[in-house]
TrEMBL record:
A Gene Ontology cellular-component term: cytoplasm
Tagged with keyword Calcium: yes
Family recorded in the similarity comment: Belongs to the sulfatase family.
Protein name (record): Arylsulfatase A
Cofactor entry: Ca(2+)
Species this protein is from: Cellulophaga tyrosinoxydans
Amino acid sequence: MNKSLITVLTTAVFLISRNNDIKKEKIVNEKRSMNILLIAVDDLRPELNFYRAHHIQSPNLDNLAAESLVFNSAYCNVPVCGASRASLMTGARPTRNRFLDAHTKKDDDFPEAISLPMLLKQNGYKTISNGKIYHYNKDDEKAWDEIWQALPVFNFAIPENQKIAKNTSRGLPFESADVHDSIYRDGKVTLKVMNDLRKLKKSNQPFFLTMGLSRPHLPFTAPKKYWDMYDRDAIKLPESYMQPETTPKQAFHNFGELRQYENIPNKGDLPDELAKELIHGYYACVSYIDAQIGLVLDELKRLDLEENTIVILWGDHGWNLGDHKLWCKHVTFETALRTPLLIKVPGKTNGKKTEAITEYIDIYPSLAELVGLKSPKTVEGKSFVPIINGEKSTKNWAVSKFKDAVTFIKDDIFYTEWTDAMGVAYARMLFDHKTDPLELDNLAEKPEYSELVESLSIELRQKWGKDFLK
């Protein structure tokens, strides 16, 4: 037998074998449940192109949005990191005594709840926590097959800045360093998630893989190339850079989180140039995490996993960038409550946007339904799968809280009460976003709105949850 004939026969055998492998892999993929890639971004505002804000460069998020269902009216249930994440992962509302602050632990506040990762693990999923998902690494530990954090955990790349951070409360509020993306924590998380995808590709087990990104949380540290994308001279302070006298004093705070960093004044407004530098740093960090997300999504596609993987992306709450002369979160203005939320479901989403009001407790039952699972009784959210399927939402409200402040969001109305332990209001705030989208004119104490305030107060108590005062 001549060499050319041997080559032809060998090639034919290889192709037949390869085709059989592809058919087998296709059958396995059709039989197994849909995978979930969950991307959690710390302190991410909906200040992005697909939310009609066109000054932050985030091409990868734009591309994801073009293949997703984009929620224009998504709200966290509590505007602080630990509490928001515990509430989201259990699908349960915060109360006066549950899910209160950054140091919230699901295991302490609601140990009996079956979390989303636990539900998936109990139903055959490989569950991997990468980066910041819960506030504490060991929280809900039994729900995960693997918990991974980037080490060493440095917020700063420049040795001098590392030294400042070691010898002070938190170090500088920002850094621009001419370094590779993977020097910072989120770059390391990205490499880990990509490697996980390669390993999971070889498994017949469905996966719940998470990517918890730390930026754009303070300090605003990102490689210099992302800072160079923006001209600071073109950055302006927000239009709402004021604190009207009609707004209750309870609505404001001294942004203590920011004041823990070096070179931030202990009280009073920030100098305009410092304020613009912070905004510049925030933009740079968003572009940095956008690049990391792009790498992971490209790897998902390269591995032929995207057609069998739901991708959901959310920011744990909003963030004030000088809005109402405030920085950070910890308030119930829309800037701290409204969040980016995207979900890409293969074969079902295509870039459409919905105005349906959605709460973060709705994420758990929605993902459970999408993979064919029933949510536990402790889940208080409502699935938004009907919206994905093109149906009209029947829900037009949400409830968020922080400390004594409880906000009822209904259509264009934002109504907040500060209540005591018995649920009695001692301050109120009412905004109509049709006429006042920047929330500068509090209507709550105006006589002509007294009937509306009364009806909203009643409805707030009907909607804030049966266990709210417990």
